[in-house]
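Hey,
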Amino acid sequence: MLRYFLDKFWNEDVWLPPNTTWADIAPGPDKAVVYTDHTHVFYPIPLAFVFILVRYVLERFVIAPFGTYLGIKNTKPRRAPNNPKLEKIYKSSPKLKEPAALAKKLELSEREIQRWWRLRRGQDKPSTLVKFSENAWKVVFYTCNFTFGLYTLWDKEWLWDIDQCYIGYPHQGLTNDIWWYYMISAAFYWSLTISQFWDVRRKDFWQMFVHHIATILLLSFSWVCNLHRIGTLVLLLHDCADIFVESVKASKYAKYQKLCDALFLMLIVVWIGTRVGIYPFYLIWSTSIRAPMLLPMFPAYYIFNSLLCLLLVLHIVWTWLILQIAYVAIKAGQMDGDIRSSSSDLSDSPHNSNHSSPTRSKSRKDT
């Protein structure tokens, strides 16, 4: 029975172009080119735990000390007094509802309830140093991965002529550098998906979760179907803007306001240029319009292209949020809020730990 369902799932009519079989693109010494091995799609999962370990070591022994050197505090909020009854109610619903009725039930004043609730919510907040370390780690990875990706793709013909992503498909060879680029990128997104449940919980938690899953599915689909050429272009385009996304946050937590403002301006230019410009009007246009002209379509390709469009929807949502923050920045005179997070509530909360910007003061650091 299991074999029957597996055969149905891996139906060649679904996953491959017409008149192509799995045997045609299976790797082997007798083949003219090196094909992707579908079993390698699982390699990034154990590698993701290596990334989590590397991240832990870097954050603890390099990034956190550097953040402390910059003057970032690792202070933790005061803990709420021990109250099992209130703790049970808080865990069932972190939002305080009907404080007057609750105060009467527990024989406490309404003010005592509100004060306890405020302290209890505050103790869940991570310190500024923790948030800085998380963003700095991502800056390091995205910078290194973008540099590696650019170096890897520089001599590849499809970087300069996107039609080469389809010409000759699916008989397109795989090189070692592309293999590593795919494995490293997929492992990183697996690590983000896993660590997201204990990292700083931001307002766009579920959008980011969908983004990570969609990216992993895109990488997996493109790997299995030997569509790695277009996949590498998607990776390169995303890493470019993400460097600035995380840099803005890190500089904000470090209170380097002028650097933050400059990076934010660069982010707007790079983000709109890549995510709202190149991505839909060059890359998705190519996958939707040019690809059907150059190769026969098959069901898995439509799934692949739908995932690309799903990423575009997320890009549009985040672009709107970034433009909202830019509008606030123009009015306030500085970058405020947290990139890719809802600007409707710029203050910290226990489950939405975006760092609101204090007003300018003479003590603020400038670069």
